[in-house]
Specification:
By secondary structure, the chain is mainly alpha-helical. Among the domains are: 3-73 and 87-116, no CATH class; 211-412, 3-Layer(aba) Sandwich (Rossmann fold). Helix content is 47%, strand content 6%. It has 16 helices and seven strands. It has helices at residues 3-11, 28-32, 45-77, 91-102, 108-116, 136-188, 211-214, 236-239, 264-267, 280-287, 300-303, 306-323, 340-345, 351-367, 376-379, 400-412; strands at residues 230-234, 253-256, 270-271, 277-278, 291-295, 329-333, 371-373. It has a five-stranded parallel sheet. It has a two-stranded antiparallel ribbon with strand order 3-4. Helix 12 (306-323) runs parallel beside helix 14.
């Protein structure tokens, strides 16, 4: 009997019949055999006996089948006898039989059962290692380094203010040395020709306000209508304008009184020509003028000290500014000089004193936003005294020519305002458009 026939008989036994696997599907061997594990060659006596008994039974069955197969073969050899074609074992059965022989004659299901009984591998055990402190050598070394760092930080914090103060002192001394070197260089510097720019000065004094740069400059010739809303405040010098009625100030108002001074307009009373007693301050307020011209001080030169006079003068200006409208224009005029003969007779009218007082009056006006008019430009001669051509004979009051010069100065020295009417020939004159 051939090998293939033996395998066919083996698989056709009742307990090993398998259905033919369909095309394209895996056989039982292809599914189960990869899961099988090799069994150990050592067997127990009971298992060996069972295996021998099964082999003897299998050989007896195989012997019977081989006998029937040989008789069937002889019958096929007889002439004329019809024999059924031999059935071929399935491909999966042949492959399984050959694989079964390679496994030392053991069926494949024995391998599966043996694999199931394989003892489980023990699980690995993990142990926790206790934490160990660093050795004493490394511990003390780290602590020493930390202590050094902390001591350095603390030392830097403590010494920081001293270092800052030292740096500031050094910078201050350096700046002082640089300033001294610059001063020495400027002191030793020689400029050829005309000096230009500021010059270093060691001995100097602060200059007071000067009439030269505070006084109002010439500003064109205004029309006489400019004085229609003017109030003249003063003493007998100002009152003289009313004597010369042809001076063009006929429409102006006057608050001028004989012997008046700054104190008179603060808390004094005067008696008018009509015999009426009035307060000069009330007259000033009642005039409601748009422009106020002030001239006081000649009488105070004989009756008051300079300090008292200036104190009353400042108070008077403050009262005027407080009681008159804010858009009022104030012109503060200087004290006119006396003639040379009058100065020689009475030293209270000395030029130095009068000019010093005028400097202070100019400062009072400047501090209050008022305009200063220096009458020395109109009435003084080359020596600074009142021109003899303008004197009325007493060395203090003016004649007609003196009032004419004074009037001309007032016409040409006004502050510029839009809408002011200037006469032809003036720098600010604009001709009216032709109709």
């Amino acid at each position: 009997m051939s090998r293939s026939e033996k395998e066919q008989e083996f698989w056709e036994l009742p307990d090993r019949r398998l259905k033919k696997t369909p095309q394209g599907s895996k056989s039982l061997k292809q599914v189960i055999l990869p899961l099988s594990l090799p069994l150990s060659r050592s067997r127990t006596p009971a298992a060996g006996a069972k295996s021998s008994s099964a082999n003897r039974k299998r050989s007896t069955v195989n012997h019977k089948r081989s006998a029937s197969s040989s008789s069937a073969g002889q019958a096929r050899k007889q002439p004329g006898a019809r024999t059924a074609p031999a059935k071929k074992a399935p491909a999966a059965s042949r492959t399984r039989a050959s694989q079964q022989k390679k496994t030392s004659g053991k069926p494949f299901f024995h391998s599966v059962i043996g694999a199931a009984k394989k003892p489980a591998q023990p699980k690995p055990k993990y142990t926790k290692k206790p934490l160990t402190m660093p050795s004493g050598k490394w511990f003390f070394s780290g602590a020493f380094v930390v202590i050094l760092l902390l001591s350095g930080v603390i030392t830097a914090i403590i010494e920081a203010p001293e270092k800052i103060a030292a740096a500031q002192s050094l910078s201050a001394s350096a700046a002082a040395a640089e300033s001294a070197a610059l001063a020495e260089e400027l002191a030793n510097q020689v400029v050829a020709g005309e000096e230009v720019g500021p010059v270093y000065q060691e001995n100097w004094t602060m200059r007071t306000v000067s009439t030269d740069w505070v006084r109002l400059p010439e500003n064109g010739r205004v029309d006489m209508s400019y004085f229609n809303d003017v109030l003249f405040v003063g003493d007998s010098l100002t009152q003289g304008f009313t004597t010369y009625t042809s001076n063009g100030f006929e429409n102006a108002k006057f608050a001028a009184y004989i012997g008046a001074g700054p104190k008179t307009f603060i808390d004094g009373t005067v008696v008018k020509d009509t015999g009426e007693s009035v307060r000069p301050l009330d007259e000033v307020i009642a005039a409601n003028a748009k422009k106020v011209y002030i001239l006081l001080g000649t009488n105070a030169l004989e009756t008051m000290s300079d300090e008292g006079f200036l104190q009353y003068y400042g108070q008077m200006l403050d009262l005027f500014k407080q009681n008159l409208p804010t858009d009022t224009i104030f012109y503060v005029q200087s004290i006119p000089p006396a003639t040379a003969e009058k100065i020689a007779e009475n030293e209270k009218f000395a030029l130095e004193r009068v000019q010093g007082l005028n400097q202070q009056i100019a400062k009072l006006a400047y501090d209050r936003g008022m305009y200063f008019l220096d009458l020395y430009e109109a009435l003084a001669d080359d020596t600074g005294a009142l021109s003899a051509a303008y004197s009325a004979g007493d060395g203090l009051h003016l004649n007609a020519d003196g009032y004419g010069a004074w009037r001309e100065y007032l016409i040409t020295h006004t502050v510029y305002r839009p809408g002011v009417l200037y006469v032809p020939g003036s720098p600010y004159y604009t001709a009216a458009p032709a109709v």
